[in-house]
Here is the input.
Amino acid sequence: MFALGLTGFPLAHSRSPELHAEFLRAAGLTGEYRLYPAQADELPALLARLRTGQMHGLNITIPHKQAVIPLLDELTPTARAIGAVNTIYRREDKLVGENTDAPGFWDSLPESVRARSGSALIFGAGGSARAVAYALALHGWQVRVSARRAEQAQKLIAEMQPLLPITLETLDWEERGAPWNLPDLLVNCTPLGMYPDSQECPFPEDAPLPASAHIYDLIYNPQETRLLTRAKAQGLTYQNGWQMLVEQARRAFNQWTANDKQQRISTTENRT
Ligand code: NAP
Here is the structure.
């Protein structure tokens, strides 16, 4: 019986329970994935349940992705580089913090886009922008980060650059729609366009989207944001954030259940 869950605040619109219920069913495992809305001072009690084995896996979301780090024993290299944790598991007697957003984002990209390995422009410099910048730079992409607060973009670069093989750059927020900007991939990592403010768009309305860029909006509610409607109208390829949500959840689930699935498979093999 797997006891899994998600903590953060607020959690009302999370789609994670339905995803993990489907993963449990598909893996033939019994368990539950519950929401634990919690303030920062309630995190130690939740983590104690992981330490004692009452819980087997926990996802962390806004606003605790960074605040949880001092409460953990170890970070994976990915979580350390990004500076944020979205998945916690127990290894022997240690609590380990992982970040599955970065590989989840990479896994969600179409093969045709991955193969370009060109230049990317990221809007926003928060938690998801860090994960996206890490994933792309690790795979050899040139990455520029544009945020309304230049100092936030500079901080991202100062903290992440030493751990990356590619030089990250910033782009002034006011220049994000300039015609000389021709990235192969544009990723929106801001909440601009998210329900209920669905008519907002991170790209200036008076400028065309960069010709031939793949447009990726991390938002999945609504399914088609204003940014994606514009991409469609311009004949560009595009995607929303749903597949990333699925892939980061799949990676967390596999981490939590790997041993059991192996055991189940070998038990089945012994029987046949
Ligand atoms: P975050 O850490 O709060 O970062 C948000 C970034 O957007 C910050 O740089 C913030 O700047 C900027 N921003 C906020 N409002 C803005 C505005 N009105 N104009 C310009 N910039 C603005 O949030 P996050 O975790 O990175 O999430 C960002 C978006 O990605 C959300 O819509 C979230 O739902 C989505 N997301 C999707 C997935 C997925 O799996 N599909 C995963 C993670 C996140 P300030 O600091 O100045 O406000």
